[in-house]
Amino acid sequence: MKLINIQINAPENSPNTDGIHIERSTGVVISDTRISTGDDCISIGQGSDNIDIARVHCGPGHGMSIGSLGRYVDEGDVTRVHVRNMTFVGTMNGVRIKTWENSPTKSLAAHMLFENMVMKDVQNPIIIDQKYCPYYDCEHKHVSGVTLKDITFKNIKGTSSMPVAVLLRCGVPCQGVVLQDVDLKYMGEGGSSSKCENAMA
Fold first, then answer.
1. Which Gene Ontology terms cover its molecular function (predicted)?
2. What CATH number should be reported for the domain holding residue 163?
3. Set 21, 62, 82, 142: catalytic member
4. Rounded Cα gap, residues 64 and 61, in angstroms
5. Nearest Cα to Cα of residue 129 among 87, 100, 155
6. Using DSSP, how many helices (H) and how many strands (E) does the chain show?
């Protein structure tokens, strides 16, 4: 399936308005598209393989997400995702991978390349969150059943509206995580920083 030269608009304060959601799909191409929404501009769910995304403008919204993954029984793997030449303006996140804790079954999210990104005033430009839970009573006692492997963030530049521009919060160790040519500046006083938990090169 190819989605090319599309424009999607929803109010910034509209809940659960993902622009494009991909799930249980193979060979999807998205390019030359503008998305403004109240949730994820693009989200990729379980069971997806060989996804190619290029030249997408995102904002406002929650950014680009892999997941959430690992919430339900027998979820499929997410593999071979290539995202490039995206611009994020005023979004909550840039590129985010999110998996639930205490997954009922194990799965894999692997072989992903995110490259040539521009972030403009983005809260969380790069984030891996394996303790994802949108509720208030999460105890964070469990480890995600989703294994993250072979993930590269390359040539990502711009500005962050929060001091922590890169957050890698892995449960089971993330394997083969590479950050190359990342230059993200904090918009406020002081420099930007990164936080890393259980991420391995």
1. polygalacturonase activity
2. 2.160.20.10
3. 62
4. 9
5. 100
6. 0, 15
Give the tokens for residue 14: 């509209």
Q: Write out the residue range of the structural domain in which residue 179 sits.
A: 2-80+92-199
62 catalytic per annotation = yes
pTM of the prediction? 0.95
Exposed/middle/buried for 143, CB within 10 Å: 0-12, 13-18, 19+? middle
Query: pLDDT, tens digit, for every residue of 102-154?
Result: 888 999 999 999 999 999 999 999 999 998 987 767 776 778 899 999 999 99
Among 96, 106, 61, residue whose Cα is nearest residue 166: 96
Using a 10 angstrom Cβ sphere, with 0-12 exposed, 13-18 middle and 19 or more buried, the burial of residue 11 is exposed
In the chain, how many domains are there?
1
